[in-house]
Amino acid sequence: MPYYPIFLDLNNQKVLVVGGGEVAERKIKNLLMYGCQIYMISPDLTPRLSQLVAKGKIHHISHELLGKVMDDAFMVIAATDNPEVNKQVASQAKERGLLVNSVDQPGDCNFIMPSVVKRGDLQIAISTAGKSPALAKKIRKEMDSVFGPEYGPLAELLGLLRIQILSKGQPASKNTLIFQKLVDSDLLELIKEGNINGVRTTLKSILGEGYPIDDIVNQVVTVQVPTPVPTRNRARHPRTTPPPLT
Prior knowledge:
By secondary structure, the chain is α/β, with parallel strands linked by helices. Helices cover 44% and strands 13% of the residues.
């Protein structure tokens, strides 16, 4: 049975991560981008996770609080290097009706995490339904070169324009035509080139008068389009396992 693709709002939601090694670190690093409250259980932590705890970015709690925290959690991630511990964590989460992901154990999950290309609010998720994470990663790397950093400001710009266009109370058919003209225009290339005046000119030619074009453009494309950061080899840390669950 195929997985149903979905995007979740994790802002202010409580997420429990069991594990404090390299895998847990990667999961937590990703979760931090989405505004959730992260609680972590592990006897030992990687240096990076210890820094996040010291800065108050995540909460490091004792194993004895597992049940209490899980009772209030929205999502649970089992990320230890012990498959049996992960299985126990997943089982307890499922009993509570929670979303649960057990690393490298799709049979214990009720959701899986895709490989993602992220450019601001634009996110492209790639999944093989757990059959080949390596293939999903390969496709993501290929898409990284296709969708450059300019797509982030473009998505932000189109989102602000959409609010303005819909506020005019025009027929849906007219709005659809305008939206299509915007995405088919040269806005992407102009943003990539840093041609702010060109962006303004294109918008005025499509929208006409009555829109705060200068204000919107100044909010978005005056910010320098970021240069992609090359992937570096991550320093490896031993994965750690909490004590067996009781």
